[in-house]
Amino acid sequence: MKKLIYLILFSALLSSCSSNDDLPEIKIEIASELGQYISDGRLLLFFSKDQSREPRFSLSDNVNTAQVFGMDVESFEPGSVIEFKMDSFGYPIEQLSNLKEGNYLVQAFFIKYETFERADGHQVKLAMDQGEGRKWASTPGNIYSLPLSIDWKKGSDFQLIIDQEIPPVVEPEDTKYIKHIKMKSELLSEFWGRDMFLGAHVLLPEGFDDHPNQYYPLMVFHGHFPSDFGGFRTSPPDPNLSEDDYSARFGIYGYEKIQQQEAYDFYQKWVSPDFKRFIIIEIQHANPFYDDSYAVNSENIGPYGDAITYELIPYIEKEFRGIGEGWARFLYGGSTGGWEALAAQVFYPDEYNGCFAACPDPIDFRAFTTINLYEDQNAYYQDGDFKKILRPGHRDYLGHVSSMVKDMNHRELAIGGVQTRSGEQFDIWQAVYSPVGEDGYPKPIWDKKSGEIDPQVAEYWKENYDLRYIMERDWETLGPKLEGKVNIYCGDMDNYYLNNAVYLTEEFLEQTQNPYYNGEVAYGDRAEHCWNGDPTLPNYISRLRYNTMYLDKIEDRFKASAPANFNQQNWTITKN
Length: 576
Hints:
Putative esterase, Esterase-like, Rossmann fold, 15 helices, alpha+beta, AB_hydrolase_fold, signal, 8-stranded mixed beta sheet
């Protein structure tokens, strides 16, 4: 019996050695004119079956995703050749040794890191936004190889040459109605140890230049990094647009024309004589972790909540004649923007007069998508005595699941490693909500590979960023300041299960007393992400009308709270 066991172990060892010997040697060379500008970063290696586009653009949570492996590079010496590590973590296949032989389109991509000496004493290496919104696949200065078709065999070596660089972003130009600003934030610059900036796209009301003594309310439209002010067009739709344009998300043709028509319709309303006059801003607050900051103060990201509320917004109001008081500011947005709208209202209750949070990211961490951070032990699996089941991460309106929470996180792990550097969704939640770890990077809420939850980090999240819990905990003092200001909308088949946290939050809000919250929570029947409160229109239309759909409710707030000298007819104050 012992001989049989030894024979099995020896055979397994031989098999393992043979497998390692069969693996190829993959070398990555960086062109000399590009290599002199890099030191640290993340090297990604892609394999794809899709011949229609570059592999870097084929990575997704869906079943037809490309394959990626990632490794950290430190202190790169120009002229040296990088040997890609065979044990680098990959998604969806975790190990190169398990990649099937065959023909692939292969590409190497290098994400550049910069060194930050933060005010908290930590030195961290992160990818900096370059005006594109912290999107690694399109960050100016990141470098990559042209796609190469190879016949992948486990014993065949190959080499890739990185000789391409992503060009700088072209900044949008000012127009009569849309202005673009960029300002240095003293608060953020002090935190990050270098100059840091906030930006915004500002939509000015009709007649702004003709009425220099008029001052206007401010609408803050929160969302992901906007390249320019969206949904506003001063000319009719392009007549040459093809009707064959197809939106896979909404399953309709001609969606580009629909979007342009909606943008032009908004312009026509904006300049009409009886339309209310106000300022709308879309904020740019990309940072080394993500395309925006979640508009709150964070140990890892810095005091973005204070910087936006006390630096950026007053600057805009001074520059463009905003009224400049809390009763004349409103918040709205969807998804990330929905969470930000509610969070800003909760954390700065006197500075804003109402929020309209559509399909918000999890606002109750007992339903952090499909995870209960306070009771579950693992984020990826539901464990039983004899069976464990993967937690779903994305579904359609019929409940059909297309990806799992584990898949989403393993994709991020391959892109950014264990230091929360992917620039993707779960990593930014961790960067915003977590305390700083001993290494200077966000302390993990769960082990990125196994999914095991850290209850101490979960408790920190609860006390500092669980919006439902914070409102309930502090309602005695917070409630009077939030009365009539909290409005939440979500589809009951949200693709990311965000409605579950809304249900729990509504349950709390409906039992509030002294005062009753006196706002609104509504659900879209079978509506997916991101339903924003109009049951009479399909989601693909209502999502284009954020800037007009809450105006009646905002008007009600003004009637209840604006001072006597506020002109309720056109929403302005005239100052002599």
